[in-house]
Amino acid sequence: MTATRPRAIPAADPPAPPATPVAPRRTLRPTRATWPVWAITAGMPLAFLLGVHGIVWPIVAFALAGRVLFHRETRYPWSTIPLMIFVCWIPLSFSMTKPSSLPIFTYRFSLFLGCLAAAVWVANVSEERVPTQRIVDWLAALWICTIAFGYLAQVMPHLDMGSPFTTLMGPIGRINFLARISDWHLADNQDFLDHAFSRPAAPWAAANSWGAAVGILTPFFVRSWLIDVDRRRRKIGLVLLAASIIPILTSANRGLWIGLIVGLVYYAARKALRGRFGALAVLFGAIGVVGILLVATPAGSLVQSRLGGSGDSNEARSELYVDSWKGAVDSPLVGNGVPRETNYYKNSPPVGTHGLLWYLMFIHGFVGLALFLTWLGIETFRSGLVRTPLGWWAHLSIVITVVELPYYGLLPHIIVLGLAVGIAHRESRRAVPAAAA
Predict the structure, then answer these.
(1) How far apart are CA 241 and CA 225, in angstroms?
(2) What is the 3-state secondary structure (H, E, C) of the chain?
(3) Which one, of 81, 92, 105, 83, lies nearest residue 364 by Cα?
(4) CA nearest 307: which of 209, 397, 195, 218?
């Protein structure tokens, strides 16, 4: 009997290496899934041209809220519980107002609802349907749009006219609040000491809103145009960043300057603690460039005047803050519902404005303030633990928002804050965290 040789067992094929995720194609075109984000970011130039740049925010808010509420598999991150309670608390403040205030009250309520909906929706929607990088790119596009309008405001500072939307609405379009958020208004023209200058406002409602937006959106621009991109895109990004310095300085937005400085110092400190000192070089380089511009251009005298001669502005703000505190003490649970007119001087701002912190305190009481700050504190801490590149820049945007909280109203900016929080939640779930870039 002939012995048979054992058949050789073929070696098992080595396991295939994990597929490298393909970066989404950069595009400014919306899809059925992404149109709400596009409408308030990359689509903002079109919205301004039509005159719906103020109306689009509540539309997006209710659209995202509908997607969240009517999707059976929606999961609410535990950290959003204080914000959910706050959104449910807001209607109680209407008991302190007149029925005629319902439209404005509903508009502002929709923005907080949109903040919650944006955070939950981005945290739940799949990466395939709505790539995180695309959201970041579109937020960067909104930054570019805002800076471009900063230059346009210097070319046509006195353009202030009805938009196609307000014209179409007829007498309704002349209602003060609707006109303020829908008209073609490029700049706030102000006299300051011996200077008359134009502060960019579009595509936002006012100059302070313009400054708040630039601060919150800057981290997304840096991530989209300067980090992990090809050489050509980085060169364009550097040109755009350099071009932004002039409108940022001439906007006379002290709050914006503070936000960017704190954000840059925080960024450099976090990197230095991890043994990466390149960010410190960026910090000192930025200080040097700004210093040269302040010495070599007319922006220096404007900035110096703004910093040295702002006593009246500071005094007015102090009055607002004191009255906001007193009003909140008078109605500590549900607040006062709407801002209250003042007579500090001609056209002085209402109590409950000039800072989201004071708005929450005066409008929704100490309970509403505590709920919102609790949520924001949790999200700031959680996002700081994320170690992915996209998560880090979303965290930096949240940090700048916290810095701006006392002196900018941040309405409708809080929907952008919701997008940043949603990105941080999505990035925290990635299986293999990367070093923050």
Answers:
(1) 9
(2) CCCCCCCCCCCCCCCCCCCCCCCCCCCCCCCCCCHHHHHCCCCHHHHHHHCCCCCHHHHHHHHHHHHHHCCCCCCCCHHHHHHHHHHHHHHHHHHHCCHHHHHHHHHHHHHHHHHHHHHHHHHHCCCCCCCHHHHHHHHHHHHHHHHHHHHHHHHCCCCEECCHHHHHCHHHHHCHHHHHHHCEECEEEEEECCEEEEEECCCCCCHHHHHHHHHHHHHHHHHHHHCCCCHHHHHHHHHHHHHHHHHHHHCCCHHHHHHHHHHHHHHHHHHHHCCCCHHHHHHHHHHHHHHHHHHHCCHHHHHHHHHHCCHHHHHHHHHHHHHHHHHHHHCCCCCCCCCECCCCCCCCCCECCCCHHHHHHHHHHHHHHHHHHHHHHHHHHHHHCCCCHHHHHHHHHHHHHHHHCCCCCCCCCHHHHHHHHHHHHHHHCCCCCCCCC
(3) 92
(4) 195
Q: Could you give the CA distance from residue 90 to residue 113 in angstroms, rounded to a whole number? A: 10
Residue 218 and residue 203: Cα distance in Å, rounded?
Answer: 16
- Residue showing tokens 């295939």: 16
Q: How far apart are CA 142 and CA 47, in angstroms?
A: 12
**In whole angstroms, what is the distance from residue 309 CA to residue 307 CA?**
6
pLDDT of amino acid 125 = 96
Q: Give the dihedral of Cα atoms 245, 248, 251, 255; nearest 10 deg.
A: -150
Q: Is the pLDDT of residue 310 over 60?
A: no
**Residue 301: what pLDDT?**
59
Cα–Cα distance between 267 and 270 in angstroms, integer?
5
Q: Amino acid identity, residue 412?
A: P
Instruction: Kindly give the pairing relationship between strand 184-185 and strand 187-192.
Output: unpaired
Q: What's the pLDDT score for residue 313?
A: 59
Looking at residues 281-289, what average pLDDT do you find?
Answer: 68
Q: How is the chain split into domains, by residue range? A: 35-227+311-428
ω into 203 cis (within 30 of 0) = yes
- CA geometry: angle at 430 spanning 424 and 433, to 5°? 90
User: Taking the model in full, what pTM does it have?
Assistant: 0.89
What would the two tokens of residue 389 be? Answer: 């590149």
